[in-house]
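Why do we bother with holo predictions? Because pocket geometry can differ from the apo form. Keep that in mind while you read this record for iron/sulfur cluster.
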Amino acid sequence: MVKKDKIELLGIGISELEEFVTSLGEARFRGRQIHKWIYQKDEDSFYAMSDLPKELRAKLDEVAIISFPKVLKQRVSKDGTRKYLLEFPDKKRVETVLIPQRNDNEKDIRYSLCLSTQVGCPVGCAFCATGLNGFQRNLTAGEIVGEFLSSRRELKKKVKLKHEQPISNVVYMGMGEPMFNYDEVIKSIYILNDHKGINIGQRSITISTSGDVKGIEKLALENLQVTLAVSLHACDNELRDKLVPINRKYPLESLFKAVEFYIAQTNRRVTFEYVMLDDVNISRKDADNMIKLVKPLLANVNLIPYNEVEGLPYQKPAKDKILQFYNWLVEGGLNVTIREEKGADIEAACGQLQAKR
Ligand code: SF4
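The structure, written out:
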């Protein structure tokens, strides 16, 4: 049981940790030592912090806590993707996914980590498993960073790795709409980016949104070097209203205005994610609409052949249809990639996360 009066140290930066230890009558550098244990060595037990005096470890354990989420379950795909079911102290659960970036040399693999930002999701995209169970709560910055630390610790236990830092990229594309939990997401980015701690470069971080215009406008002014990914999925309002319900609040015109503003402010290339649903959004007309919208912008398109979800009526298009759509877009002058499918056999692919046992 988490004692309510204990101070949570997960999610706290170096200067706050220094202040915390001085409030206990200890020297400031003890704060830096604890910081290193948490964010570099993935340690959540004060008793394992071997360079702290024994009495201090006991004192810390009395007054503070570091609540890494518990790994309840992990599944490993045949392509090396790892999905973790994580549980927070209040028993709320999310899933997080580690996607290997290279397969040629087992030991040399580095991973991209897909983080969740909410328990469930209030957006309710028509094709997505996460939305099926509704929304429960936002995660704190500490909990988001905890996903990173628990996953890395578990990975290091299970895989012999060459790199001290096996996670090279972080994408905020798991469960939830990151922009609806804006402040905690931004705070978590600063913690992940801190070069004295986890040290993930800002350019190696991607925030994805289903199209929250206010969030995009705010992010444009943050002076961060992260990548913005926008889940487009349809290029006319009628269809997008059905597939991505946030479109009813922020239709394509306002979404694209916000994206233009973002590019003008940051001069950074935006990625449009586009899930390909058979017989739904991959016609010639859909391609033409997308070309019209995206071509004038500094942007890439990432096509994601649908990963089927039990209970939902959508299907993945056949290979020739995927290629046909891709070719139309390329001929229309867009920068397009087709996302390689990872982890579909363990329901870890895009849109498949549900935090089921
Ligand atoms: S696709 Fe993303 S925004 Fe849409 S319901 Fe799923 S988790 Fe939420």
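Residues 121, 123-125, 128, 130-131, 175-177, 210, 351 surround iron/sulfur cluster (CB under 6 Å).
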